[in-house]
Every structure is written in C-alpha cells, then in structure tokens.
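Hey L., structure's done. Input below.
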Amino acid sequence: MSAPALAAADAMPLHARQGDAMEVSRTSRLRSICGGSLGNVIEFYDWFAYASFALYFAPAFFPGADRTTQLLNTSGIFALGFLMRPVGAWLLGLAADRYGRKPTLIASVSLMCLGSTMIAITPGYARIGLWAPTLLVAARMLQGLSVGGESGTGATYLAEIAPGERRGFWASFYYVTMILGQLLALGVLLVLRFVLFDEAQIESWAWRLPFALGAALAIAVFYIRRGIAEAPEFLSKRGASSARPGLSQLLQHRRIVLLAFGMSVGSNVAFYSFTTYMQKYLVASVGFPIWQASAICTAGLLVLAAAQLAAGWVSDVFGRKPVLLWFGVGGTLFTVPLMTLIGRTHDPLTAFGLSGALLLILAGGTSISATVKAEMFPAVVRTLGVGLPFAISQSIFAGTAEYIALSFKALGHESGFFWYISGCIGISLITFLYVPETRWSSQIDMPARR
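Output:
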C-alpha cells in the first residue's frame, strides 16, 4: 500500500479500515503467506550456511591456529548469534507491535542481507588483520538480530494473515521454511563441493559464494515483502487499545509469558538434537559413514516438513492441545528408547525409521507452537510475546544442546543426554497441561476493544 493510501486509511473510521484490511487479506493472502514464508527460508539458509561452511572459511579468519582452535573460534561466534536472538526478538518484536508486521519483516530480511554481504566480502586476516574476525563477529550479530526478530514477527504474521479455520495448517509453514533453509544450505554445499569446485578452491575463495547467494536471495525477498499486505489483525486493532507496546505491557501477561517459555523448552532442544546433532551422533557414536548419515538426516528433514503440515491440519480439525500433547507425551516417553535403539543399529534403513519416528513426534510441538502463542497474546504485545520467550529459550537450551551432548559423551555417559532431552520435553508437557485450547477461543479472533 502506498504512503497516500496509508494516510487515507488512517483518516477513515476504524470499522472502514477493518473492512479494507479484510478485503486485502482475501485478495493477497497467498502472496502474503509466500512472502512471509520465503523470507524465513532465506533467513535460515543464511543462518545454517555459516555452520555448513565454517570448516572452509575458519583458516581465512583465524590463521596460524590449529584446526581445533579455528573451529572453536567460529563455533564461539556461532553461539554469539544465538545470544543476539533475544535482543532481536525484543527490538524487532517491539517495532512490529508498534509500527506493523510488514515493515518489521522488511527490516529483518535487510539485516540478514547486510550480514551475509559482510561475510561474503570481508577480506581475510592476512589482508586486514584483527579487523577480519571483528567484522565476522559484527556480521553474525546482525544475523542473530535478524533471526531473533524473524522468529516472532514471521510466526505472528503467518498466524494473523491465515484464515481462522485453516490457521494451524498455514502457520505450520514456519518450521517447514526453517527446514527448507537447512536443506538449501546443504544442497549448495554439495553442489559446490562435488560439482563445481574441489576442496582447496572452496577453502581458498569459493566459500564466499553461498553468502553472496544468500544476500542476493534476501534482496529478492525484500522486494517480495514490499508487496505483501499488512496483517489485517494489526490494522483492525491499531488504536483500539490505549496500552503502549513494550516490556512493561508484556509483563502484565506474566502467566502467558511463562507458558510460552515452557512450551519452547522441549521443542527447541528436541529440534536441534533430532536434526543438527543427529548427524554427528550417527557418525561419531553409531559408526555410519558421513555420506550415509547425511542421507538419513536429509530424508528425515523431508519427513519432518511433511509432518508439520499434517499436524497443523489436525490441529484445525481436532484442536491444538491434542497435537501438543502428542509431542509432550511421545517425546517424554520415547526419546530415550528410540535414541538408544538408533545407537545399536548398523542398518541405515532402520536408523532412518527410528529417527523418523522421533521427527514425527517432534512435529506435534514445532508445527503449532508459535500459532498457539499468537492465539494466547493480545495484539498489542503479540509479536513480542511470541518471539521473546522463544528466543530466550533458544539461547539457553538450543544453543547449548550440542555442547551438553558432547560433554555427556566425553564423560562416557552419552545416554545421559537422551534423558536430558526427555526431561526438557517433560517440562513442556507439564506446560501444555496449563495451556488453554485456543483453536476455538483465540485472541486473534476477538473483536477490537477500546
């Protein structure tokens, strides 16, 4: 919508603005859902590209150190990105609740574009010395801000733009796009390594290409997002309440904030354990070759993507809580035995079946978690409420999952990590018992009140 149109809309009575918002949502909903979803693909492609190519670019930023030290340095910067996520969730969530979802989504993808561009063009340590790792840190901080803001704003936007009777299904695209981002990063790695270049060329300069590609794709999404509609929920309820968005207003809903945090604990740990860590577990502990472990995990991600949509649809038909409880009960009871069985098998098909079972359980938590949070919070703090507890949980639990897993392994008690995952899902299970059923009683569907 152009600036004159926005000014005209502001001059209209509230009920007229509501009608226009609903009309926009009907005619451009599919475009808006695609715009919100595609941005998330690029955000997480860029995020995982760093992890995928760290092995190749580490010597450019940290020369002279041994390989382990180089990887520790790049891993530390990766962890710093996790720590920036709550800051991004706070700043961009606040902006989304005050100024709108659309401009914040544009800002989010712009930050990711800037971060990826910086990584792609920053000279190595040999040319600019300490400025090289310093700029790498700055780029990752920008990307951390971006992903933190995208998590809350993107999930909230999808929940608000989707039709109420199909909200679970459409909003489940959030994690689908995260998975597609991972697969895209993996696909680029495979093409560069096995089709276009050899390992020496990638380590020398070609590692920059994935980040340049990410920046270019982010520019494309920037223009797509400029054409999406503002969420009708934001337009219809803007000015309907005298409350000003912010942390103080959010803390007036402390119970919902605690529920949102508790819901995130189990899904965050389980997602990174059953996807990112699973490949290392299959190689280092089970004994599969790297290519076989990669194939198992890639196929598993496709299963998880399909399961997301199925779980979202089920939640629209039978309610949100049954789907959440599927994850809570299944994850608490079956994580330890399934992970143990994976560790004892040497058949790739069996390993795929067992890991696929874990991912089918996980889909119950990841598919609709953000939707339920959006349906619990009022519009004035919805983006902040969805994004900030999730980002804090990610920093504490997701960002440390692999470190905790490797620590248990180093102590000779790898199964302790399986119990840790189960315990974290158990925390979410207890939380689910107190979460209201939002399918038929949602804050999103309530009329605006002054």
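Residues 1-25 have pLDDT under 50 and may be disordered. The chain has two domains: 1-238, 248-438.

-- N.
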